[in-house]
Write the structure tokens for this entry.
Amino acid sequence: ENIWLESTGKNFLATSEISFADILAACELEQPRMAEYDPFEGRPKLSAWYKRVKELTSPFYEEAHVIVNKIANKSKKPKL
């Protein structure tokens, strides 16, 4: 967030347009969710970037992460 998304005028990691680097990075950030860790918590720039990537790659992004989402939702502990 402080390095790759710091530059003003860029909506994505390398340029103002989405690239393979954005898709790859977004997919990597999905994995910690399976261990109940939210990599976007407290990171507004990262969260906004992630939302842009998902919106531009929809519905394929969601389709590609069906299993990850099932695991992440299954591992969530019920709140008391």
About this structure: The two ends are 33 Å apart (CA to CA).
